[in-house]
Amino acid sequence: MSLLVPKSMPLLIPKPMSLLVPKAIGTFILAAVLVTGPAFGQQTGTASLPSLKSAYRNDFLIGAALNMRQIDEKDPAATALIAQQFNALTPENSMKAAIIHPGWDRYNFDDADRIVQFAEKYHLKVNAHNLIWHSQLPPFVSHIQDADSLRHFFTDHITTIAARYDGKVYSWDVVNEALNEDGTLRKSIYQQRLGDDYIVEAFRLAQKAAPHTLLYYNDYNIEHGKKREGAIALIKKIQAAGVRIDGVGIQGHWSAAHIPLEDIENSIREFSALGVKVMFTELDLSVLPSPWNRNTADVGQQAAYADKMNPYVNGLPDSVSAQLAKGYEDLFRLFMKYKEKISRVTFWGVDDGQSWLNGFPIRGRTNYPLLFDRQLKPKAAFYKVIAVAGETGTR
Ligand code: G3I
């Protein structure tokens, strides 16, 4: 427990408590924090916050996706919060192919090296993201026509990067988002030029180049029916080839109003039955309406539509804040039920201001999907997540 005791705190401790051992006092203070909630955090600042990584230290790693502004420590308050709350990081963009391998014979390891240094300095495990993905590829790759050239790029890319960071990063998302919603393989440039076996091949190359690094498959919506079946078939295929796969990452980009708890529970059970660890790798809960079922193209209605899709520009109503907090509470209760099967839960960002959900699927919205607000203050959802860790009575 990394709680710092505010000077006034002993006054709150009833007399018999002062006879107890320090650990028990820490637990009592945590209880006081949880009872008083956000007001306590706001009065005392970040230094007195309970810590996610400490609360879940016996259960699973707690990670965050970080951008280079955070890695370069541009904001000391953000650095302090990251060091206090997280013991794992995933580079949000900086180890993707477009950045780390911008030219056929050209690698740029500057950002990735700084990520590793930051992680060492603050004792975070790096989940490197990612080796093979159809998106954020360097532009030259889309011009590669023949299979041999693409295979050359593929082999060199995996081998060079995985070998360089073996022993420096904890794990790799070896293949990212290779499945369609119906569980079939996405027709990516890799699938089209190299055939369906490119995924097994990617893991085989990563295993050889990075024998000390854990190797994962990572995707969204794989908690659902056909796509879950596709992911299970994929993992079995890799295993049947005698190739190592250590875990599967369920991204967890959900809506706070519709969290598929039953699917998530079934997927934890079914994936872990294959002998791989399960992770929640990109967790965030959108509170904004989805545009997917829009049924008007009337230009006259555009302004009203824009307002309707971005309703919380001036702040989040208490009812929605409570819904978000409840969503996180339900999720972490489920994660705790299966803590033996789960090795990491990573949030896709630290604070609401950083989230990709402010720009996707509609640009320029104000979303609130994470545990810390735009001023880096803990939200009600943060306290719910901390409270769930204390419920088992084992700490
Ligand atoms: O770096 C350029 C900058 O130079 C330029 O001025 C700016 C103009 O738009 O773009 C910047 O690049 C953006 C990059 O994020 C860094 O901010 C890209 O346009 C933008 O497309 C990119 O978005 C990232 C997205 O992946 C790309 O697909 C998001 O930040 C990142 O959160 C998101 O992460 C993905 C995971 O990797 C895989 N799972 C889904 C998840 C969310 O989409």
Considering the chains and any ligands shown, give keywords for the structure.
395 residues
What is the global morphology? globular
Describe the main β-sheet briefly.
8 strands, parallel, barrel
Order of helices and strands: HHHEHHEHHEHEHHEHEEHEHHEH
The main sheet orders its strands as 1-2-3-4-5-6-8-9
Given as residue ranges, the uncertain stretches (5+ residues, pLDDT < 50) are 1-44
Overall structural class, as computed from helix and strand content, comes to alpha/beta
**Could you give the count of β-strands?**
9
Count of helical regions? 15
SSE layout:
Blueprint: H1 22-36, H2 38-44, H3 52-55, E1 61-66, H4 68-71, H5 76-85, E2 88-91, H6 97-100, H7 110-122, E3 125-132, H8 147-165, E4 171-176, H9 189-194, H10 198-209, E5 214-219, H11 225-240, E6 247-250, E7 253-255, H12 261-272, E8 277-286, H13 302-309, H14 318-337, E9 342-347, H15 380-390
Parallel strand pairs: 1-2, 1-9, 2-3, 3-4, 4-5, 5-6, 6-8, 7-8, 8-9
The protein binds ligand G3I.
